[in-house]
Amino acid sequence: MADCAISISVFTPFVNRYKTYICDIEIEIVVKKFLSVLKYLLFLAIGLAVFYYIYREVEFRELMEQVSSINWWWIALSLLVSIIGHVFRAIRWCMLIDSAGYGVNRFRTFCSVMVMYFVNLIIPRGGEIVRCTVLSQTDRVPFAVLLGTVVVERVVDVIILLIVTFFMVFFQLDFIESLVGQLDSDAIFNRFAFLFSPFFWIAAIGLGCVTIAVLYKFRHKLLEIKLLKPIVDLMLKFWNGIKSILKLKHWPLFLLFSVLVYLAYFTMFYVAFFSFEPTSGLSFGVAVTTIIVGAFAMLVPVQGGIGPWHFMVFQTLAVYGVQIADGKIYALISHSTTNGICLILGAISLVYLTVIGRRSVPQSKADTAQAD
Length: 372
Prior knowledge:
single chain; 372 residues; mainly alpha; 16 helices; globular
């Protein structure tokens, strides 16, 4: 017994050290989770503060009167168009997954997309991970494969958004010039007058293409520089994502659905204009401009873009002659209805995928090929 006691006493320092190590790890995990939650709460507080600042002067009676004047049939049509856009996004995602050698159920993929929107309203940027997780569980597709297809999707979305933004600015240079010309300070306008020259934009795009080509040519040498390595790695991932599109069997159809996704979103916003008298006379181009400006406001990591999105939308509408008060009401109605349908369909989809969706699915094409 004495020998046993001596043996145990020998290992006691190691056991205590192990317990301390485990305790430190648990504390670190708790601290990280706390900071993550604190970050989301902070951004939510900022968004709510902006939202309160915007609508602090709107009286409840005035709001109810404006809401009662809304033509909800146009809102319903707008929401239907938005759902069609989500269907297009799901079909496009299926094409990428199919090109990776895995077969997925189209309906479950659509449900995963709706879960993405649902989670994004709670945890900004968290929906992309969750949609890959749930579809990986229901259709037995590796999570890493799904995440790779999402990266490709986002690369395409960014490219389309930048192209539409460029054309939006290019074709409205005269309008922007007249708007800036209304400023009191002529010095500011004269200093930035070059921005309204088409030659400036052509030269900027050309310089950007040359820069990208040079960076790609010398990418291996740039990777040796520790300071530039993260930037070069990010650029290479984007480039690999773009190249992977060319491996699609029907990549023109993929690009078509990518365009249809944004066309549905623009149409959704345009149709909603007809539901509200002050915005009923606005054009499709105004809808595109407002969506683009609102998309950049969504870069702020606030749940659902609450606050910043409303501010950018009513400010954009004001440029086109809509009264500030009316623009605020429209932004509130549009944001509430589009996110409301995402909450409802997303919650239903999440229940379906977690409770009903876990069923036996056919073996993936990649697994079949490995078995052969």
